[in-house]
Design a protein that fits this description.
Shape: extended
Number of strands: 3
Structural class: alpha+beta
Radius of gyration: 18 Å
Largest sheet: 3 strands, antiparallel
Helix content: 25-40%
Order of helices and strands: HHEHHEE
Distance between the termini: 56 Å
Strand content: 15-25%
Length: about 100
């Protein structure tokens, strides 16, 4: 039989390998996650500027990748926080993490 109904809780195989973004190995990611997990008080925020070393290693799309991954992390674990770009330093967009109401 080619098509059959199954119980996905028992028979669905798991992924063959865990995939993670390259940005998750950077010091900026590690510091950001540590500070987010510690908790942001009202009217506190994170200002994240990628280092030249990280940009050289990961390329010009590193700030965008960082923003996307942080947004996913925040949505899953810390609702009520916002992740966005605002301003730039040496042509590199600055990624901000703040409370939604402070945006």
């Amino acid at each position: 039989m080619a098509v059959e109904l199954i119980d996905v809780r028992k028979e669905l195989p798991g992924p063959s390998r865990k995939r993670s973004s390259v940005i998750m190995g950077t010091p900026e990611w590690q510091e950001s996650i540590a500070k987010i997990d510690a908790g942001l008080k009202p009217h506190e925020g994170l200002r994240i500027v990628l280092s030249q070393k990280t940009l050289a290693k990961l390329g010009k799309y590193a700030p965008r990748t960082l923003k996307i991954q942080l947004k996913r992390y925040v949505q899953e674990r810390k609702p009520g926080l916002a992740v966005f770009y605002r301003g730039s330093e040496d042509g590199v967009p600055i990624v901000w993490v703040t409370h939604e109401k402070d945006k």
